[in-house]
């Protein structure tokens, strides 16, 4: 019976190919399609373990404002859910503020940081086989009861010692003191915890990154001094701290550089620091847009903390605010991959900026000399709506030499955010061949900037557009009726469309561009 069904699928595909000479039938080097979870959730980190994919975050089977429990879900490498479990929190712990990107593999357990509203963070020690939580270690300051704490990131020092960085602010009856950096050294074997504090006098200090270089802890932060309601003075800073709590400021940007803060730190084999900034270079287009035009930046510092190079990442030729979530080494060890989110904006009738109803993810590669290699834009379109917001939260190397990432999607129709995760090859391509030159694709000139994959389709259709201009897409059935409509506007953008509700059969994808180009492709639903 299985052989019979496969023969039918091959026959239908052959008919479709003969029907459309312009179809693209690129073969994937991986078999994971985009996975959109069916429960309300926000992810924190994603990683692969043996032949499974683990997704960790906050979520719930019911929707009530943003009351979330913790969740851990396990999938096979095809994206099929194998198991999931919710970890119920107390009322003050339901809210989610973000998760760290780092997870550590220790013999039979995983170790990572979970963050909650209410300014609480916990180290979770999780059994690899059954995903049960062996330990939940609270990170707090018993000496400062009238304070709030926000945990940010974790790193491993040795088999038992981990360092957690966060910010703490002491509350007093008269006023609120400025925030300091808190580094907590946690022994996960005997639950011994030591807290250390430092920061810049007169500034609020907000750390985001921490790494252990074998001798010192390397910590990235931002020092912020408010100047007015809408303006502040910011410095991106890097600290060194030993295990005794002695901290030294090693790097600080000038106040006029607009390098807002350090989001991620990657250490290379030579002791250089590769640093991703939450905000970067300032690209002014008008006085109105001054505070909105900034870009994340990847920069390399040598062992003396002198800048070797710095390169903006994310899209540069677009009205957008770029944010960055993570930075990891490239799989070829020839550079670095940054991931984040683009928030576009337009202008109203009075020329004031306002944000669009669409947010998109991006991946950017920078080589070891600081040269930008490529950008990839990722847009999820899962419903009949032109309003959707999605963020990328984590990106990791996959076992087969590509990348796996996760994020969340909020649409204008379905209430609540939903987690999703995706897979790319080593070129950052979701659609195979997106990195190739047009001549290699062997397409007619009017369609050379469009690729589709897979074909035949089961649940998700991926459309890759090469050109940076407005594209209007329609999916039509064979009777010419419009089934779906969606848009793309950016260079090297992959649009992922949920077509799982379509009946089996042949469909036509049409596209028209602002410059007058048009094209059509046929794909088969099975």
CATH topology of the domain at 97-252: Methylamine Dehydrogenase, Chain H
CATH top level label of the domain at 97-252: Mainly Beta
CATH structural architecture of the domain at 97-252: 7 Propeller
Number of strands: 35
The number of distinct helices, counting runs of at least 4 residues, comes to: 2
- Outline the low-pLDDT stretches: 1-30, 283-292, 439-443
What can you tell me about this protein's structure?
- The chain is mainly beta.
- Among the domains are: 106 residues, Immunoglobulin-like (Sandwich); 156 residues, 7 Propeller (Methylamine Dehydrogenase, Chain H).
- The protein is 4% helix and 53% strand.
- Strand 7 and strand 8 form a beta hairpin.
């Amino acid at each position: 019976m299985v052989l019979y069904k496969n023969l039918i699928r091959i026959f239908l595909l052959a008919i479709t190919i003969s029907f459309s000479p312009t179809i693209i039938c690129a073969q994937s080097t991986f078999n994971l399609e985009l996975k959109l979870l069916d429960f309300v959730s926000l992810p924190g980190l994603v990683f692969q373990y043996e032949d499974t994919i683990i997704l960790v975050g906050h979520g719930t089977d019911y929707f009530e404002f943003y009351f979330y429990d913790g969740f851990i879900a396990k999938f096979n490498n095809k994206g099929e859910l194998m198991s999931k479990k919710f970890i119920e929190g107390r009322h003050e712990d339901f809210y989610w503020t973000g998760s760290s990107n780092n997870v550590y593999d220790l013999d039979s357990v995983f170790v990572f940081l979970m963050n909650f509203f209410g300014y609480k963070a916990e180290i979770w020690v999780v059994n690899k086989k059954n995903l049960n939580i062996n330990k939940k270690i609270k990170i707090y300051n018993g000496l400062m009861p009238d304070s709030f704490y926000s945990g940010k990131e974790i790193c491993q020092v040795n088999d038992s010692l981990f360092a957690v960085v966060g910010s703490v602010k002491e509350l007093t009856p008269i006023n609120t003191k400025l925030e300091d950096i808190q580094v907590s050294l946690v022994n996960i074997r005997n639950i011994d915890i030591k807290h250390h504090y430092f920061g810049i006098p007169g500034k609020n200090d907000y750390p985001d990154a921490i790494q252990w270089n074998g001798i010192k802890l390397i910590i990235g932060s931002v020092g912020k001094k408010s100047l007015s309601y809408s303006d502040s003075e910011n410095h991106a800073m890097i600290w060194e701290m030993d295990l005794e709590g002695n901290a030294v400021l090693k790097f600080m940007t000038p106040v006029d550089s607009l390098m807002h803060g350090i989001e991620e730190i990657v250490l290379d084999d030579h002791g250089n620091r590769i640093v991703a900034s939450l905000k970067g270079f300032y690209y002014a287009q008008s006085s109105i847009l001054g505070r909105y035009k900034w870009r994340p930046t990847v920069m390399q510092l040598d062992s003396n903390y002198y800048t070797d190079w710095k390169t903006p990442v994310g899209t540069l030729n677009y009205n957008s605010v770029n944010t960055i979530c993570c930075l990891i080494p490239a799989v070829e060890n020839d550079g670095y991959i940054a991931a984040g989110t683009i928030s576009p904006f337009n202008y109203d009738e009075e020329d004031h900026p306002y944000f669009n109803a669409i947010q998109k993810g991006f991946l950017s590669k920078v080589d070891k000399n600081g040269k930008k290699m490529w950008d990839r834009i990722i847009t999820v379109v899962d419903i009949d709506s032109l309003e959707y917001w999605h963020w990328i939260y984590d990106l990791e190397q996959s076992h087969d030499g590509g990348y796996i990432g996760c994020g969340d999607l909020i649409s204008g129709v379905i209430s609540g955010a939903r987690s999703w995760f995706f897979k790319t090859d080593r070129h950052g391509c979701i659609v195979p061949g997106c990195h190739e030159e047009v001549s290699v694709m062997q397409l007619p000139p009017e369609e050379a900037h469009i690729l589709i994959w897979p074909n035949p389709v089961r649940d998700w259709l991926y459309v890759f557009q090469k050109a940076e201009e407005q594209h209007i897409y329609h999916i039509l059935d064979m009777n010419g009726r419009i089934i779906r409509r969606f848009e793309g506007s950016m260079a090297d953008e992959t649009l992922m469309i949920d077509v799982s509700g379509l009946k089996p059969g042949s469909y036509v994808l049409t596209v028209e561009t602002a410059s007058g180009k048009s094209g059509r492709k046929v794909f088969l639903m099975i």
